[in-house]
Amino acid sequence: MSELRQKILDEVKRVVIKVGSRVLVDSDRGGVRLDYIRRLAGSIAHLMNNGKEVVLVTSGAVGAGMAVLGYTKKPAVMAEKQACAAVGQIDLMHAYREEFRKLNIAAGQILLSADDFRDRSRYKNLQNTFQVMLSKKIIPIVNENDSVAVSEIKVGDNDKLSSDVALFIDADLLLIFTDEDGLYDDNPKKNPNARLLHFVPKITPEIMALAGAAGETGSAISTGGMKSKLESIRAAVNSGCSALLGNGFKVLPHEFFESETHGTFFAGNAKKIGSRHRWLSFVSTPRGAVVVDDGAVKALREKHSSLLPVGIADVRKNFARGDLIEVLDASGNRLARGISQYASSRLSLIQGKKTAEVRTILGKETPEEVIHKNDLVLF
Ligand code: GLU
Fold first, then answer.
1. Which of 59, 213, 281, 316 is a good FRET partner for 304, with 20 to 30 A between their CA atoms?
2. Where do the structural domains in the chain lie, given as residue ranges?
3. From the alpha carbon of 161, which atom of ligand 1 is closest?
4. Residues 24-60: pLDDT tens digits?
5. From the CA of 254, how far away is ligand 1's center (Å)?
6. Which fold has domain 286-378?
7. Which among 326, 330, 367, 376 has a CA at the least distance from the CA of 346?
8. Which atom of ligand 1 is closest in space to residue 158's alpha carbon?
């Protein structure tokens, strides 16, 4: 197994590294842990000098700002948290910039919200930005745009953000740090005999259940626990990106590439998905849904056809042309998702109708498909 891990790691070109608040922020004195950022920058420079492309997803803005604003734990009020993030983000970026500059590496800040992934044109722009930065050997340093994000446009936590970014830039490896040495078969804080898993070939429900056993949750300054880390790792792995979970207090990123004893390695599924499909899987909040008849279920499943008006039995919620919608079968099971070529109001006029009738109702120029097969992902 370890040979396989080494082989996959040797072939890694693009890495997303996620570092959490607990590692980055000094919980006793408050503020950014400069000594750690110095070592992290050195480790990342080492990887970059060895030909890896690196994107850093950083937390710590709220944690770093808390001390300045006089909080000892993360405030519950959203606006207060956002004020902390606004203050702390500058300190964090200042520290990164200084440390990377000493190593002759330019750092750039990318602050994201979930909307940036949902909108196709923003998505494309953002992809180009990453592309240019990576090709010019600039390190993109990503965080959620906390000071403006409200719950509807929040990615969630930075574990999720890191797997979104990994999928988004088609990374080969997602490296997530925690305060344990990796994933154990029981809670290592309670059971001294708990064993560290070194290699996870497949993320089964049993593996997911270990998140509970790990017993790690958010802390006074951090957000995600083992569950959110494993969910993010699963999302990455399912899209063909391998993942590593390791101890941010003990191991630096480049050390994972040099010794197989560190952390838990999760092998990515072989299947890599295309960019269009990747985007569709991203857009996490469909705006509405259509219920389709059995004939359409069969056509979608067996022939991977486009979805036509004739197969639509019901239209749910209001959505606009170009929105992401879900396709449900008659029992309400999720079958697929895709981009609707019709607004819900127009679709209601033509549901269940054959193409010729559709054209009589809406005119010749109207699209034949409700969802074109290229814009459709089956579950
Ligand atoms: N974006 C938050 C911050 O910078 C962290 C969220 C998280 O740790 O999941 O403080």
1. 316
2. 2-278, 286-378
3. 9
4. 999 888 889 999 999 999 999 999 999 999 999 999 9
5. 23
6. 2.30.130
7. 367
8. 9
